[in-house]
User: Fold DeoR family transcriptional regulator from Pseudooceanicola spongiae.
Amino acid sequence: MDGEDKKSLRQRLLMEQLEAQRYISLDEIARRFSVTQQTARRDIMELERHGKLRRLHGGAMIANSIEPSELRSRRIRNAQAKDRIGACVAGLVEDGASLFLDTGTTCEAVARALVSRRNLRVVSYSLRIAAYLSEVTDFTIAVPGGFVRQVDGGVFQEQSQSFISGFKFDMAILSVSGIDDEGDLGDDDQAEVETVRSAMRRSRKVLLAVDSSKFGHRGLVRLGSLSDVDLLVSDAPPSTAISVATRAGNLAFHQAS
Assistant:
């Protein structure tokens, strides 16, 4: 088998591994396929050019980790609750504030409610949010460059964390796929988690906006814990177990009505 055939086989097996576990590090690629890290890096760069994966610092992730059907379902699911959450969040944001705004259906509801505020400066990796706010407000809006995730308009590249770390925020507004009974925050996408962690580190306050269906659920990738959050906004109080974790930190709960 010639070198090109070996590369094609290796890349096919690499994609199969990514489909199974969603994220793979350069170290794991090098170890699993007995190649150098330079070869592993070239493989993921080539696969990224073909739109098959997203390159991250130290590894790679499957290009679309959320199925389109799942995102469509999320847009419909608990839509009224998310609108109430968005309105509540907007009431906690001061005019002139600098914000990081996460992607996802709950944060899209937050963006719709933020039009009641004035002179905001917003950084988001969601093209949906950026396009909406740019059409209906005069806010200052910044987005990172990179590849667009077609399923939800999220923008990612290897340097997304560096882009986010160049800002300071009054508040980071985020949502997650689940909060388990230990108070751990989980999401479905390694790239999103790394980007959001960077924003949290650069923010004076962290606000978590989730509908109550997320309580008691565990996300694929751990983002952090409720102890990393200053404000929790939801349509209903969390479960008893999560309430214990909430009381363990300086976390203020706001119920959207």
Summary: Residues 3-62 form a domain with the Arc Repressor Mutant, subunit A fold (CATH 1.10.10.10). The chain has two domains: 3-62, 70-255.
